[in-house]
Amino acid sequence: MTTKEGTVDPKVPSSLSQVGIVVKYEFENYFGSRRFYILLGITLLIGALLTVLVAHYRPQSFLGSGSLGFYSSWWGRVVTFVVILSGIFFGGDAISAEFQNRTGYFLIPNPLRRAAIYVGKWIAAFGASAIVFVVFLAITLANGYYYFPSGVPSQFLESVGFSLLYLVAVLGFCFFFSSLFKSTAYSILVTAILLLFAFDFLQLLVSDLVMVEPWFILTYGSSIIGNVMEQNATTGQASYPAHVITEKLGPRGLITLTTYNATIPEGLAIMVGYFVITAIIGLILFERKDFT
Amino acid sequence: MATASLEARDLSKSYGPFLALSNLNLKLEGSKCVGFLGPNGAGKTTTLKVFAGLIRPSKGHAVINGIDVQKDKRGALASCGTLVETPEIYPALTPRSALMMIAELRGVPKEERTKRIDECLAEVKMEEWSDKRVGKFSKGMKQRINVASAILNDPDIVILDEPTTGLDPRGMSEVRDIVKSLKKKGRLVFMSSHLLSEVTEICDEVAMIDHGKLLVYDTIANVSSKFSDGGRTVEVGLARPVDKEAVTRSISSLKGVTSVEVLDPLNLRIRLEGGVDVKEKLFNDIASLKVGAISFKDASLALEDAYLALIKETV
Fold this sequence. Notes:
The complex is a heterodimer. Chain A is mostly helical.
């Protein structure tokens, strides 16, 4: 049974197969735990609330400007929240829990690379998030078809694609912080604070006050999800907002506010960049971290 | 099958200024059980963690069956089962699914997995719990699953870090039986423990470390004879309470006795000088005193004496 250095016992599956095994049992763990059902419940609740509110109050912002306006209000405003919650729920402590909850002591001392665990966990987190994502998409489409049975605007489909890319980037980002900390509380808190509040605040500060384009902020890149469905107020046609908008405020226009809107290529590059960089650094951190 | 081997080559590990392991050199080979002893903080668990791929050494190499764990963890651990500290199992999994995951990762053939898992669960007496979620299990029950996981693919080498931790007396005895059966199957077992009686019972050889340095590695018999005083403290059990002063006086006057301590009205501890012949004579002399002596035993294990002689202080 002994093997020569550099070779692996032929019985041990390939790293790729081991990634698949990790994914399979991560899914089993998700479906056996409350976490998945809690997020699914929150998503269903959001969908139900929107359905009831729109059906009851018939708000102009949702129903007054055609199907694009409907999808823009429904999807564009809410999906980023669903994506961030998925990232926090499934990625926030995916790696740090291996240290804090000591499950790593069960999994790591086996003939498999840490990279296989990292990738397997990432794919499982993406899969679980994708289920939640699809549920919210289905609720959106069902309502959209009810109010506007004529069809789905192409901009919405683009937005769905951007949202999926945002999910990839958010999960990469969450896995990075999860690898950085050994405490699940820290990793979840830091990602939640950054994605839910701090990035938006920083973006406001940087663009409006310092007047620098916040190309380095993930949530800035994700703004293409909603922007792609923006409409011209008079024609009702799709109209992507200008890259830079300056507004004069106050008496005699003394205060100038500058708002940046990421272009689509820029937004895509930011999200891909975030995913690639955070995933690589997160993996390196996990590979090097000691179980002490 | 080639001879199983575990080797630490100049193995060092530091945590900031603290040197947990200092150029440890140790080679275990063949079919046997080696006890790994040392005080808290001596570096036992650190050593085992390096072999298990849980931590990276600062210097040196941990080599399993000729393969460096750092260079090729998949190859090194392919035929090595480990149980280091007290691992937790994903709470939503059942013992069967957790072991199935390990069986798949370790490449146990598909047609053998269920049978092998059933055998291991039976060996750790967890068959009845095989389909219940691990999240509700006690520490001892989880440790049984961890033991099952370590032996699941019938590895050549088994590394165990205080495997009886958290187990009840029956569980401890069962784990000891498992280790003995591994020895019978010709496996190499490397086991850390603080229970010297356990090590004496199960192991053939012992390695002692302190402050990250190897103090001794030899058979238990050799270590005991080299470093212990040969069990020169005995305890005598009495059938009835005795006059403390009279008994102390009469036993103290016996040849070879250096001191007598009354532990309680029914137990005495006697220190003596000399070997087995002195002990034999003392046994007869005490019997002839007719003080109601009903038992006569060594007050400490020879291995314990050796341990105490080698390791002067604990952290």
